[in-house]
Amino acid sequence: MIHTTEVIEVDDELVAAFDRLTPQLSSSSPAPGADELAAIVASPATVLFAAKDIDSGEILGALTLALFRIPTGFRAWIEDVVVDESARGKGVGAALSNAAIERARSEGAKTVDLTSRPSREAANRLYKRVGFEQRETNVYRYSLES
């Protein structure tokens, strides 16, 4: 069984989980340390969710929900969804996504958006199964790092 929670306190277990999970999400970004995780948790614009195995207590995945107001309404955006390779296909991603959707709904968001690389086929199937619809849009990025 999986239990999702909003992270309200950063501890050694969370830092260790991100040390393990971050390389599974990105090969170019280092794992966040305790201070970076604490900044995410403390920010009124972000909610960090963790998914734990009820039996072992191990953190199996995480997701960040960004909440923000723009002129056209209050929006939500899901970022950095990661599920441990050993737990994929066991409902962790769905549990995290549903927790984030419910939080966004309770905050009054009009929509919840996310992006996913086409090569992440299982993740894309999951998002569609949860109820996300693929949009016809172009996503652009301007890199501020050289």
Layout of secondary structure:
Elements: E1 2-6, H1 12-25, H2 34-42, E2 46-53, E3 59-70, E4 73-83, H3 92-107, E5 111-113, H4 121-130
Parallel strand pairs: 4-5
Antiparallel strand pairs: 1-2, 2-3, 3-4
What does this structure look like?
The chain is of the alpha+beta class. The chain is 34% helix and 27% strand. The protein is built from four helices and five strands, in the order E-H-H-E-E-E-H-E-H. The protein is globular and about 40 Å long. The relative contact order is 0.15.
Q: Treating each run of at least 4 consecutive H or I residues as one helix, how many helices?
A: 4
Task: Give Rg in angstroms.
Answer: 15 Å
Structural class: alpha+beta
Regions with little confidence, pLDDT below 50 for 5+ residues? none
Residue share in helices? 25-40%
Counted beta strands: 5
Span between N and C termini? 44 Å
Biggest β-sheet description: 5 strands, mixed
Sequence of secondary-structure elements: EHHEEEHEH
Report strand order across the widest sheet: 1-2-3-4-5
Strand content: 25-35%
- The shape, in one word, is globular
Mean pLDDT: 96
